[in-house]
């Protein structure tokens, strides 16, 4: 299982609590709150989904 890319690079992202997330097979990234990203990954683990 591959995990999507996750990046907390800039000062603004750190201040906002957001991260750039790139899902496998998708060229563009999206901005998500870190809490939402953690929930998303936890749900995928529970459902044993191969598609991130």
Structure description:
With 52 residues, this protein is α+β, with helices and mostly antiparallel strands. The chain has one domain. Helices cover 38% and strands 23% of the residues. The protein contains 2 helices and 3 strands, in the order βαββα. A 3-stranded antiparallel beta sheet has the order 1-2-3. Strand 2 (18-22) and strand 3 (30-33) form a beta hairpin. The longest helix is centred in the C-terminal third of the chain and has 14 residues, at 34-47. The model has no long low-confidence stretch (mean pLDDT 78). Pfam families: HGTP_anticodon (PF03129). Residues 10-44 form the Anticodon-binding domain. This is Anticodon binding domain-containing protein. One of its GO terms (biological process) is tRNA aminoacylation for protein translation. Keywords: Aminoacyl-tRNA synthetase, ATP-binding, Cytoplasm, Ligase, Nucleotide-binding.
């Amino acid at each position: 299982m591959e995990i999507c890319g996750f990046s907390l690079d800039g000062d603004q992202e750190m201040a906002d609590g957001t991260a750039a997330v790139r899902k496998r097979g998708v060229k563009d990234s999206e901005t998500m709150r870190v809490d939402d990203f953690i929930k998303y990954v936890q749900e995928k683990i529970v459902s044993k989904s191969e598609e991130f």
